[in-house]
């Protein structure tokens, strides 16, 4: 069982562990965004496909990771509670190093799809790194640490497409996979030798059932709502990301430097999140994550309204930047609520359930965005996404119960 860290004192080696896991999460996020935007172009080089076939294979390659992740995550969460989160970070980075490198060696589309499925089944570095830091950090600093860990993946997602696009243009689509595989191997060894976790392994027989642990949580319904929040917020991101460049092309009437403008529009939410993350984290530690989540959902919902009616890609970029500011208050706040209300011996399982809901949100959002934009219009995607966040806000207000503060 983990040592219960509730005082202001940080465990020995905490800063080295934090910086190592932050960099590891950054590289994981960067590696994903370095390779995924170009996977359809890579698949296109492996055969002669019709437009329908290319879209289908690209969709399969994209979705397979999240499908396997949603299925397998609860098992890894149970193992994390018995063996520790450090081992799970090593498992994720080690297997990802192999599968991503082998993807670069693929000779047909089915190799890519199978390897993407395996990658998803063994993934989870960022979530396990976040859970590890949650267990090592005093509750009074949880908000800041959760927000800081989020910036790692966000920053990686900003850098990745630029680096991947440059490398692909110079050396071909395989090179980003090789480089990402090598970097994940470096993350594996850094996590192994540098990070420290205060964890005492327990046997499978001694592991308390989740049902028994859930009785210790003062507001179980709120925890379930946090899982749903994770799914809806992730869905809201994934429903928009795949169609942003197409929407920009429509707004620019297929004229001008569409790729550059689309890149700016795609990057602005991440920039906004980076700007706001630290401030939001400290605010959570001061007033509690539940209040921050409620305001974040309200503001995010309202920001989708002008996006529906905008006629300029630069106006869209502005509203998406503001959306990024609000997004800094969403997933970190939900994760912080989980760390404050859930017993530490259940962290691994709870964060794995959260990861399953996040993966489900990725699949749901991608399908929803594609269907709505195909049947109706791109602007309709923003309307439906804003409505789902409004429903999410209603659920949080309905089941918030007692106040969740850093001292709970």
Q: Can you characterise this structure?
A:
With 408 residues, the protein is mostly helical. The protein folds into two domains: 11-196, Growth Hormone, Chain: A, CATH 1.20.1250.20; 209-403, Growth Hormone, Chain: A (Up-down Bundle). 78% of the residues lie in helices and 0% in strands. It has 16 helices and no strands. Helix 3 packs antiparallel against helix 15, helix 6 runs antiparallel to helix 7 and helix 11 packs antiparallel against helix 12 (289-309). It is globular. Mean pLDDT is 84; it is low at 1-7 and 403-408. It is found in: Cell membrane. The chain crosses the membrane at residues 20-42, 54-76, 96-118, 143-163, 175-195, 220-238, 258-280, 292-310, 316-338, 378-399. One of its GO terms (cellular component) is plasma membrane. Residues 17-404 form the Major facilitator superfamily (MFS) profile domain. This is Multidrug transport protein.
Can you tag this structure with a few keywords?
408 residues; mainly alpha; Growth Hormone, Chain: A; 78% helix; 0% strand; disordered N terminus; disordered C terminus; MFS_dom
